[in-house]
Amino acid sequence: MNRTFLLTFIGGLAAVGAGLGTYFYVQSDSHIELRGGILKVRTHAPEERSVLAVIDFRMANPSVYQFWVQQVDTFVVTAEGHTVEGMAITEADTRKLFQWYPVLGQLFNDPLKMRERIPRKSQADRMIAARFEMPEEMFAKRKSLTVRIEEVDGQVSELTEEKTP
Fold first, then answer.
1. Which of 30, 63, 120, 122 is the most buried (most CB within 10 A)?
2. What is the DSSP string of 61-122?
3. Residue 128 near residue 88 (C-beta atoms within 8 A)
């Protein structure tokens, strides 16, 4: 092989690689998703076979587009490995929960609402309350807790709390 050809070929590959790298770097913040984690989980058992969970979490929208919340779901994986879906409580009822059950403490963060818009390149602390049909002891022994947030265009972000044994 000719040395000039080899150097030209390697230079061309480097230029193509640099171009692709720049393209993917520029596009990296165009993907709509929320990142973050669960900060605190508070519980109260108003009945023997159900538990109210107040989940405080931090979320960041690194995208250049706003994230428009369509739906929020909560899931618990029990110690036995079963997944239990929680029933989300509305914002108005969540605020009343703190009046009805002082054991929950104070309302630190605003509840995440359906149709709420998370601005681009921003971070926020929110909370969600949910009712799980399981005893409080079973909830306390959970393997994980997940808050699943769906965007109006179908993108799904999950914030997960992993319990360590």
1. 63
2. E-SSS-EEEEEEEEEEE-TTS-EEEEEE--HHHHHHHHHH-GGG----SEEP-TT-EE-TTE
3. yes
pTM of the predicted model as reported, rounded to 2 decimal places = 0.78
In what helix (H) or strand (E) does residue 7 lie, and over which residues does it extend? Answer: helix 3-27
C-beta separation of 81 from 73 below 8 A: no
pLDDT at 6 over 80: no
Q: What is the pLDDT of residues 64-77, one digit of tens each?
A: 889 999 999 999 99
> 3-state DSSP call for residue 137?
helix
What is the C-alpha separation between 117 and 57, in angstroms, rounded? 16
The token pair at 162 is: 């992993």
Q: How far is CA 153 from CA 23, 86, 145, 156, in A?
A: 24, 23, 24, 9
Count Cβ atoms below 10 Å from residue 6 Cβ, excluding itself: 10
C-alpha distance from residue 102 to each of 50, 114, 136 (Å): 18, 26, 17
Mean pLDDT in residue range 104-109: 88
